[in-house]
Structure formats: C-alpha cells, structure tokens
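Sample intake sheet
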Amino acid sequence: MKRSLVLIATAVLIAGCGSGGGGGSSTAPQQGGSPGKVTLEWWHLSTAEPLKSLWAQRAKDYMAKHPNVTIKATVLENDAYKAKLTTITQSGKAPDIFATWGGGVLKQQIDAGLVKDISADVAGVLPNFTPAALSAYQLDGKTYGLPTDIGMVGFWYNKKLFAKAGVTEPPATWSAFLEDVKKIKAAGVTPIALAGKEKWPGHYYWAYLAMRIAGLDALKQAATDHDFTKPDFVAAGQQVKALADLQPFQKGFLGAAYSTPDGQAATVSNGKAAMELMGQWAPAVQKDSGKGLGDDLGFFPFPAVEGGKGSAGDAFGGGGGLAVGADAPAEAVDFVKFMTEMGNHSKAVEAGGVLPVLKGEESAVKDPNLKQVATMLASASGYQLYLDQAYPPAVGQQVNDSVAELIAGTKTPEEVGKAITEVAKSEG
C-alpha cells in the first residue's frame, strides 16, 4: 500500500485545508507586498525508501521556491491510511493533496464532491503522460489527478532458493507453478511469504486466477451484473484452495503484516521464503524491511492457466497518483504539477521507487527487474486494476475478506463467490 505506493486505500483523509490568502498559481509573479501564507496538507503512503526521502525532498524544494507555502505531510502505512480514509471521507472532508489509485474508489470521492476537477489547470501537461498511466484518474473526459507510478503485480523470487530446489526456470503455467511449490517445499524451503493479516496481498491470487480462467471481460461484466458465483469465479477459488492446501506459506502467516521487520517483504528479503506475489514496489520494500536479495532477486509474471479464457499477457495492477481536495487552494494543484515534472519525477524512477508515467522516461529505469516489469507492462494485452480499487470500496473489502477466509480454510470457493455477490448486489 504504498512503503512505496501500495495499494488499498479507499477514500480520503482529514484536511485542514489551510488556506489563508493564497490564490492563483504559486508560480505567478507576486503583485507587490508579501504573498499570503498557505498551508497544504499532503497525505501519502510512501513509508519506505527511496520514496519516503524523495517525496520529503520534493516538498522542501517546493517550499524553497515558494516561501509563502508550508507543506505538512502525513505519511501512513497502507492499512492505517485505509481505515482513516473510509471514516473521514464520510464526514465530507478531504486533504488538500492525497494519494489515490483511481478506479471505483476515486469515482465515489468525485461523486461525493470531495475532489477538484483539475482539467483546465493541467491541460498543458497532460500530453506529457502515457495514456495508460493517466487513465485511472480521468472520468467522463475530465481529469481528477496526475499519476506518480504505474505497474503490475507478479512473482518476486529468490534465484538461489529456486536453484536449491532444482527449479531451473520460472513456471509458465499454473500447474507447473504448483509442482514447483511442492519441489521447493520438499527442499526444506518455505515456498511463499504472505501477509495474511493485511488481506489485500491474498486477493492478488484470486484476482489473477479469475483473470486467467474467466478473462478480463468477465471481471468487467461482474462490475455490472454483480454476479461472482459463475463457474469460472468458483474455479478461481478452487485453484487458490489447491495452492493453500499445499501449505506453502511461512509459519504464522495469518498474523503477518506486509512491510514490518517480520512481515511478508522481510521474509523474502531475508531469504526465509522463495517468493512473494507483489507489485512493482516490492524490491524497494524488501530492501527497506530486510537485508535485500541483490542479484539473487528475480521476477516472473503470473502463470497462464491451461484452458483459461484469459490471455497470459494480461496484467493486473495499478499505480499511484495525486488528487486535490475540492476546497484546496490553487497551490495544491501547482504542487501536484511540480511533483510530476520530468526533472523531479525521473529522479524517483532512477532511484527504483516508481515506474515511468511520463513519455520518454523509460531510460531512467536502471534496475533490470523493474525494466522487465516496465517492458511487460508496455506490451500487455490487457490491464485490470486491483479489484479493491476497481470495484466500490465495500465490494473490494469483501473480496479481500472472503479470499483471506478461503486461504485460511474457513470459506469454500462457492461461499467466496456468494459473499462477494451479496455485497455487490447491495451496493449496486
């Protein structure tokens, strides 16, 4: 959730829209006298290096250029962010600038009148962004945020531990993946690390299997007909269960967090598990929370499922962006533009914190694994946003909860489909 930008949030955070006299773009020349003082509340989830320091530096740089502006950053772990967001959005408030992942969650915030339409303010810079990166923040022809990252979820693995188990190349099919899990376990190595406590990492398995078995169109259709009980969705659950039945996760995974020193990322980073299914921020969080694998770290896409309707080239993921609260002063929009200027944003790409969102930024990707992710993303045959972002918040939360129960063995694949359907119909 974010860390580097991780993904689950749902709404917005408390504001304190500090205004005080600021008006007009903060880059405009001041007309006599001292400029009005402006305080901007900025909420984000980049608690891991390199983004934690990079984003703090961007705020300092902006304040140095605009002495009348004070930026107060609130940086929270994903789940803490998510909890506050849901509560505070309901009170009708939003921070001046806040992290967003677009999709159904952003749409709800827009519908509630909490997000500023920045179309006119950013019209001049929109052509600089790649269409894929921008798409999550545009609705009905209007722009409500600018992207800071885009990427995809895949398997991050320890080459040394794979070799120890006799796995010579990453599996291309789901049946081969399950066989490799058995081999790794037989070699005395924990195959997979999972943050069972946080639930959102587990939903990646069910979502990807639904994509591979049912296809992207089926997931889009489910957003309309609110029916997750169809055979292909049940089949996705059966394959998650087939994996869970192999007991592939680390001891105590049900109580494990994601980015803590004993969590999912650190378990892989410290060589205690062979792989994790995670987004493009994984290497940064692994380094931040553990020793890091260095050259032993590799990446492979989620395998194809034999006989499935989905393409193996379809990617699942999302990015991160910055939106502006409806009542925020003009300087808030100016700061978002400043954050996404090529000279500033490419530093985050070079540091390995985010992937390119601006045209021509690809050369800034130095890390070979991230370059592989960027290349796969560029040639993806289709793209699905995280389900807990694509669907309304209550539906996304139910996906996370039900899949967690499936993995824990307390819900059947059929019960997962029914539970999600029930919430989707009540929301629809």
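Comment: The first helix runs from residue 51 to 65. DSSP finds 18 helices and eleven strands in the chain.
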